[in-house]
TrEMBL record:
PANTHER family attached to this UniProt entry: NUCLEOLAR PRE-RIBOSOMAL-ASSOCIATED PROTEIN 1 (PTHR13500:SF0), NUCLEOLAR PRERIBOSOMAL-ASSOCIATED PROTEIN 1 (PTHR13500)
Membrane-spanning residues: none
Claim: Repeat is one of the keywords in the record: no
The name this protein goes by in its record: Nucleolar pre-ribosomal-associated protein 1 C-terminal domain-containing protein
Originating species: Neotoma lepida
GO biological process: maturation of 5.8S rRNA from tricistronic rRNA transcript (SSU-rRNA, 5.8S rRNA, LSU-rRNA); maturation of LSU-rRNA from tricistronic rRNA transcript (SSU-rRNA, 5.8S rRNA, LSU-rRNA)
Signal peptide: 1-24
GO cellular component terms, semicolon-separated: nucleolus
Presence of keyword Signal: yes
Keywords: Signal
Length: 343
């Protein structure tokens, strides 16, 4: 296959596989509806063996199709192979292999997008394991090789697109690893280039920044386990440091929910974040500030200092907004061991 027809033929074959999966799912849905209709028609004269046989076929057809397709070694080994720097053995020219590998990964991604909800319903997300590993590895590889001093916004990356499309179906451990790597990036990588060059303009997120927001919004809200304490501490520290930079309402809400669920993490939050919350003055931001005052003497002292000088104008102008926060402060001002003037 040459450069002119190779990508077209490859895309056609991958589209056929995707349509096969979709068609199999439609057939299974139709069979399920027939089984339900037969059961509802008459409980007295119901042929239970026929219904059971129909339900068995319904459960197995699409699953067998998915296993046959997704476990094929060609799909598993070539998906994001270019981004992983792990091309399987081939006899293609360097230019042609890059072209075909890129088209192959894009086509397989669309196949995975169509298949993932079905796999989730069937309880067979294990069939995505190889593909999830490829996404995780290639994204982490890209993030680790970024120049720390470079403020250039990255182009759209195939592995990043795959992460955005499939992260809901990936292992939580993989998502956490990628999230921490994104939180550890320099701020310039998370903002669009125009935003870094024009500080006065409204900040726009780069593709990496948008991906981070997406992962954080959909992060699991499970109760903190003792074995995960270090991970969550890094997560809270990293996200707290980024909130003033990104200024995203949805991230403020995610951060608030995290602290509400696990207030033991409050002490790792930087004292400077309190001032951001006080100035921002949204419901979520003031909710964060309230939790910081309830669970950290450092933030109590920071609030006292802020009220004494930089926050005087805001307090006077928006007293109603700050009254609940002042009430929290008065309830908890005696906690901690720091010293105050007594006069």
């Amino acid at each position: 296959l040459g450069r002119s027809v190779g990508p077209t033929h490859l895309q056609l074959l991958l589209d056929l596989l995707k349509h096969l999966v979709v068609h199999s799912e439609q057939l299974d849905t139709q069979n399920q509806q027939k089984a339900e209709a037969a059961r509802a028609e008459s409980d007295l004269f119901l042929d239970m063996e026929s219904v059971a046989s129909l339900e068995f076929v319904t459960n197995k057809t699409v699953e067998e199709v998915l296993v046959a397709i997704l476990k094929h070694p060609t799909l598993e080994s070539w998906f994001l192979a270019l981004e992983q720097k792990a091309l399987p053995p081939h006899t293609l020219s360097p230019i042609l292999v890059k072209l075909l590998a890129a088209h192959f990964s894009a086509g397989v991604l669309q196949l995975l997008v169509a298949s993932s909800p079905i796999l989730h319903k069937l309880g067979r997300l294990d069939l995505l394991a190889k593909y999830s590993e490829a996404i995780t590895w290639s994204v982490l590889r890209e993030l680790r090789t970024r120049n720390v001093n470079s403020a250039t916004a990255p182009k759209t990356l195939p592995q990043l697109e795959a992460l955005q499309e499939l992260h809901l179906y990936m292992e939580s451990v993989q998502i956490r690893e990628v999230t921490l790597a994104l939180l550890g990036l320099p701020e310039a990588h998370l903002l669009a280039q125009e935003a870094t060059q024009s500080p006065g303009k409204e900040r726009q997120l780069s593709s990496l920044g948008r991906t981070l927001v997406q992962l954080l919004k959909n992060s699991p809200q499970d109760q903190l386990q003792s074995s995960e304490l270090l991970w969550w501490a890094e997560y809270v520290r990293g996200l707290g440091a980024l909130l003033p930079t990104l200024a995203e309402h949805e991230l403020d809400t995610v951060f608030l929910q995290t602290l509400q669920r696990d207030p033991v993490l409050v002490p790792v939050v930087s004292a400077d974040l309190l001032e951001y919350c006080l100035v921002r003055r949204t419901k979520a931001a003031l909710g964060i500030a309230s939790l910081l005052l309830q669970h950290s003497s450092t933030h109590l002292l920071k609030f006292e200092l802020w009220c004494g000088q930089p926050g005087v104008g805001l307090l006077q102008e928006h007293l109603d907004d700050f009254l609940p926060l002042i009430h929290v402060y008065l309830q908890h001002r005696t906690q901690g061991c720091f010293m105050r003037p007594t006069g």
